[in-house]
Please model this.
Amino acid sequence: MVDVKEAEQFIKKARENSRKRNFNQTFDVIINLRDLDIKKPEEKLDFFTELKYPVKKVKVCALVGPELNDEAKKHCDTVILANEFDKYAKDVKKVKKLANEHDFFIGQANIMPQIASTFGKILGRRGKMPNPKAGGVVPPNANLKSTIDRLSKTVRVRTKADAAIRVIIGKEDMDDNKLAENLAWLIDQLLHHLPMGNDNIKSMLIKTTMGRVVKIQ
Model:
């Protein structure tokens, strides 16, 4: 476990290990795991957690029916109505472009079968299908502002090809205390999802995008 005061010290060290760049760098947490066989589905890690503060401004695409059209246009970067899905059904390049340009996709619950058949192949492969665990599958009367507020704080924690996790907890223009709260919360949630808790962590590091690593554990 890491408390917020300890986490703030790691944030400060990561800043010291990073020189100023001409872009707003992210704070990346890298966790190397041990004693897990991620080839076994039951030992793979894959969960969403809502941090204390927004990680970044997210770009959101809404795949909705007419009921959510007006609400989606107010709050989302891109809105695609169900009656427009045909334009994407046979155009892989269009769907790939959408996947590249957006952090999250919101799907209206009652048209999820259409969303899956039109966009599922590409978005599923990218891990970007509207996901109920992340709050991305919404009813036709949803308040999308609150949904997007939650998504801006949401990170996905998962192992891919190897027993390692990389998670963004914020950007360098954020206050150290907010970054520290996000870091402490992430570690707490991770420990709750590991079968042996802290014993499954081989090492834990933090760095800015272009900075040198700081060892947390």
Helices lie at 4-16, 69-75, 86-89, 92-101, 112-126, 144-151, 176-193. Strands lie at 26-33, 46-50, 60-64, 78-81, 104-108, 137-138, 154-158, 164-171, 201-208, 214-215. The longest strand covers residues 26-33. The chain has two domains: 4-54+153-215, 60-151.
